[in-house]
Design goal:
Order of helices and strands: HHHHHEHEHHEHEHHEH
Strand order of the largest sheet: 2-3-4-1-5
Shape: extended
Structural class: alpha/beta
Radius of gyration: 26 Å
Bound molecules: adenosine-5'-diphosphate, magnesium ion
Strand content: 5-15%
CATH class of the largest domain: Alpha Beta
Helix content: 55-70%
CATH architecture of the largest domain: 3-Layer(aba) Sandwich
Number of domains: 2
Number of helices: 12
CATH topology of the largest domain: Rossmann fold
Largest sheet: 5 strands, parallel
């Protein structure tokens, strides 16, 4: 490399740093070499570099969105066994994975007993939404209520609500395990009403609708919450018994059938 070329390279690296183009900075020499070998013209070279920078930016942004969503586990649709859960509408699940419901501000309710795969499917839907560029936040209902109560005490509720308002998809997992206090249910209702027709909400619950009053306390609040959630809503019912229980039974059966037959 001539002295002039070295100087240009140092300057270029400096400019790329100032412009915050780390991928172009890292790849430029390699791509330049390849383009020279393949007789790609200057515009083609620039295009290749810009594409690399964009791909890397999108990958990082998706990673950030996934982290910000705070899923409790990483679950995908590929690892969901539909045969073990025949009651679930596979066609509807695949349609929902495409994420159009978020554009339409529609909600999803997953209802079923404990262990039937509600959190698994919800997480898969949430991860798909992150990959599609959506801002998502996964909460266990009790965790959200605790945070709302704390924010209220610290006079920080409006900031928290503003943060929630920026989401495209709000996930409320496990409505029904712990009854909320009166203020707690009102705060939760407030979040759900604010989201109504502005954001999509996914709720998972082990409780049939008629029992929601047990958690939310007042009949009036339960009616109003259900009214908002179920208007423009997809419902996935997960029947049967717990997947873990089925799994344990299957393994037990396999073990007993492989045991040698007792002879008298
Ligand atoms: P729920 O939220 O309904 O209580 P989870 O989604 O937490 O149930 O499921 C319990 C465990 O069983 C999780 O580890 C989950 O990945 C697994 N599981 C449940 N249903 C299925 C399924 N149909 N295929 C594969 N794994 C499943
Ligand atoms: Mg769950």
């Amino acid at each position: 490399m001539t002295k002039k070329e070295t100087k240009s390279l140092v300057l270029l690296q400096h400019h790329l740093k100032s412009l915050r183009l780390p991928t172009i900075l890292r790849e430029s020499e390699k791509v330049a070499q390849r383009c020279a070998n393949e007789n790609v013209d200057h515009l083609g070279f620039l295009l290749q570099l810009c594409e690399l920078e964009l791909i890397e930016r999108e990958r990082k942004a998706a990673e950030r969105r996934l982290k910000a969503a705070k899923f409790s586990n990483h679950k995908t649709l590929e690892s969901f066994d539909f045969q073990a859960q025949p009651s679930v509408n596979k066609l509807l699940v695949s349609e929902l994975m495409r994420g159009e419901y978020i554009e339409k501000r529609e909600n999803i309710l997953l209802v079923g007993n404990s262990g039937t795969g509600k959190t698994h499917l919800t997480t898969a839907l949430g991860i798909a939404a992150c990959e599609q560029g959506k801002r998502v936040r996964f909460y266990q209902v009790t965790e959200l209520i605790t945070q709302l109560l704390e924010a209220r005490e610290e006079r920080d509720l409006s900031r928290m609500k503003r943060q929630l308002g920026k989401l495209d998809l709000l996930i409320l997992d496990e409505l029904g395990y712990v009854p909320a206090s009166k203020i707690g249910s009102e705060l939760l209702f407030d979040v759900i009403s604010t989201a109504y027709e502005r954001q999509s909400v996914i709720v998972t619950t082990n409780l049939p609708f008629e029992n929601w009053t047990e958690v939310l306390g007042s009949e009036r609040l339960t009616g109003a919450t259900l009214d908002r959630l179920t208007h423009r809503c997809h419902i996935l019912e997960l029947g049967g018994e717990s997947y873990r229980l089925q799994d344990a039974k299957r393994r037990h059966k396999k073990r007993s059938s492989s045991e040698p037959l007792q002879t008298k």
